C-alpha cells in the first residue's frame, strides 16, 4: 500500500512541477484535488510513513504540503520516528555516504544500509552532489547527527550540510591565530538539552613531542557564533575527528611513560561544554593502532594489529573503565586489502566492515567473510564511508528565530 501511495504522490509532484513551470494553471490541479479532502491528521500520519527522499520531493505537491513538511514540528516527528526505527534495528532510514576520488575530483554516492547488509544481488547507488565541487583532499567529514554532516573544507573552514535536502551552511571562522598551532582536531555533535548543533575545534601547540598549549573553541548553530571554553591539559590529541556518543565527543590522546606509549580517551560533554573524566583503553596486547567508533549503541575501541587482526572492544557500561569486553577479533585474510573498519552489526550478529575499497560481512561465529553487493564504477577510488540517518533537519533551522530577536 505504501509503495503504491508513494508512486501516486510522485506523479502528483511531477504534475505540479509541470504546471508551475508553465504558470498557466488558474484552477486547482485535478491530480491533487483528492488531497484537499483528506483530514490533516491523516495526511500527517501518511507522510510520516514515507521515506525522507520522497518527502523532500513532495514539498512541491502544494503550498500547504510545503508548509507542513518544512515545519519544525513535522521535522521533529519525522526524526523521532527515524530514531525509533534505529533503536529497533530497522535500517529503513539509515544510509551509507560513499566518498570517492576520481582523477582528483571528489564524487559522492549513497546507498541504503539495509540493502548493503541484506541484498545479495545488487545495491542501488544514488549519486549525491557534493557540498562543493572541489579537488581532493579539500573536504573532510567530521561526523553526522540527525542527518546533518559536519564538514571541514581545507584546514579550518567548517560547514554543515544535509545531503538529503541539499542544504549547506558555511560557518563563520573562529578567529583563532592558526599560525601559532601545529595540530588541529575537530568534532561535531548534537546538544539535546539545548536543541543545538555544535562544532568543536581543538588547536594544539606542541614542542619536542610535548603538548605545551591546547585551546578549545565551540561553535553553536543556535547563536551562529564561536566561543572559547576551558583549555585542555594533557597528552597529544589525535588529529582524527572526535566520535560523538551519548551526548559526548571523544578523541584519542597519547603520552609517553618512559619508553611506553600510553593511550587514553578525552571526552567533552557537548551540552555543558566541559571536559569529562578521562577514559582508559582496555587492557590488551601491545603494538596496536587504536580507533574509536560506535557499534550496537556502545562506545568502541578498534585495536588494529597491522595485517594480523582487528580487535573490537565495547564499553558495556559507559564511563566504567572496568566494563570493556572484547566483542570480536577480526582476522586479516589474503582477500582483504587495506585496513579493516567495522561499521555496523546486523540483527544476526554479522559485522559489516569496510576493507580498504570493498565492504564485507564478517561472521564471528564461524570466522567467515562474505561479499556484499556494493559495486562502484571504480572500486579503487573509495576513500571514505560514513553512516547517517536521512532527515529533513536543515542547518538553517534557527535562522528565522535569530532574525526575530
Automatic annotation (TrEMBL):
F-box domain mapped to chain residues:
32-82
Q: Where is the composition biased (Basic and acidic residues)?
A: 1-21
Q: Which Pfam families match?
A: F-box (PF00646), FBA_1 (PF07734)
CDD domains for this protein:
F-box_AtFBW1-like (cd22157)
**Organism domain of life:** Eukaryota
Q: Which SUPFAM superfamilies does the annotation name?
A: F-box domain
Q: Which InterPro entries does its entry note?
A: F-box-assoc_dom_typ1, F-box-assoc_interact_dom, F-box-like_dom_sf, F-box_dom, SCF_F-box_component
Q: Which parts of this chain are annotated as the region Disordered?
A: 1-31
NCBIfam families registered for this protein in UniProt? F_box_assoc_1
What protein name does the entry list? OLC1v1019314C1
User: Which species does the entry assign this protein to?
Assistant: Oldenlandia corymbosa var. corymbosa
Per the UniProt record, the lineage of the source organism begins with: Eukaryota, Viridiplantae, Streptophyta, Embryophyta, Tracheophyta
Amino acid at each position: 500500500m505504501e509503495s503504491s501511495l508513494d508512486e501516486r504522490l510522485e506523479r502528483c509532484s511531477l504534475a505540479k512541477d509541470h504546471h508551475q513551470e508553465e504558470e498557466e494553471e488558474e484552477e486547482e490541479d485535478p491530480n491533487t484535488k483528492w488531497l484537499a479532502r483528506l483530514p490533516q491528521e491523516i495526511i500527517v500520519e501518511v507522510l510520516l510513513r514515507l521515506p525522507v527522499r520522497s518527502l523532500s520531493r513532495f514539498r512541491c505537491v502544494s503550498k500547504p504540503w510545503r508548509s507542513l513538511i518544512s515545519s519544525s514540528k513535522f521535522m521533529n516527528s519525522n526524526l523521532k520516528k527515524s530514531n525509533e526505527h534505529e533503536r529497533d534495528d530497522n535500517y529503513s532510514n539509515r544510509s551509507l555516504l560513499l566518498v570517492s576520488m576520481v582523477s582528483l575530483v571528489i564524487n559522492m554516492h549513497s546507498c541504503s544500509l539495509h540493502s548493503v547488509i541484506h541484498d545479495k544481488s545488487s545495491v542501488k547507488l544514488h549519486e549525491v552532489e557534493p557540498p562543493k565541487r572541489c579537488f581532493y583532499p579539500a573536504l573532510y567529514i567530521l561526523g553526522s547527527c540527525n542527518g546533518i554532516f559536519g564538514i571541514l573544507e581545507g584546514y579550518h573552514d567548517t560547514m554543515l550540510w544535509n545531503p538529503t535536502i541539499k542544504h549547506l551552511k558555511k560557518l563563520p571562522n573562529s578567529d583563532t591565530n592558526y599560525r601559532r598551532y601545529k595540530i588541529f582536531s575537530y568534532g561535531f555533535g548534537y546538544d539535546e538539552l539545548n536543541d543545538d548543533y555544535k562544532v568543536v575545534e581543538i588547536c594544539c601547540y606542541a614542542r619536542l613531542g610535548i603538548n605545551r598549549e591546547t585551546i578549545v573553541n565551540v561553535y553553536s548553530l543556535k547563536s551562529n557564533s564561536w566561543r572559547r571554553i576551558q583549555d585542555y591539559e594533557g597528552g597529544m590529541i589525535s588529529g582524527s575527528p572526535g566520535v560523538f556518543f551519548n551526548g559526548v565527543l571523544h578523541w584519542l590522546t597519547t603520552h609517553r611513560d618512559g619508553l611506553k606509549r600510553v593511550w587514553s580517551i578525552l571526552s567533552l560533554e557537548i551540552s555543558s561544554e566541559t571536559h569529562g573524566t578521562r577514559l582508559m583503553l582496555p587492557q590488551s596486547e601491545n603494538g596496536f593502532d587504536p580507533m574509536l567508533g560506535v557499534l550496537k549503541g556502545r562506545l568502541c575501541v578498534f585495536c588494529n594489529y597491522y595485517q594480523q587482526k582487528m580487535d573490537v572492544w565495547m564499553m558495556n557500561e559507559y564511563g566504567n573503565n572496568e566494563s570493556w569486553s572484547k566483542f570480536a577479533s577480526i582476522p586479516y585474510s589474503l582477500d582483504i586489502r587495506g585496513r579493516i573498519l567495522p561499521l555496523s552489526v546486523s540483527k544476526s550478529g554479522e559485522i559489516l566492515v569496510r576493507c580498504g575499497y570493498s565492504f564485507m560481512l564478517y561472521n564471528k561465529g564461524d570466522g567467515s567473510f562474505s561479499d556484499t553487493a556494493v559495486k562502484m564504477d571504480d572500486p579503487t577510488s573509495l576513500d571514505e564511508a560514513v553512516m547517517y540517518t536521512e532527515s529533513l533537519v536543515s542547518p538553517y533551522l534557527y535562522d528565522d528565530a535569530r532574525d526575530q530577536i
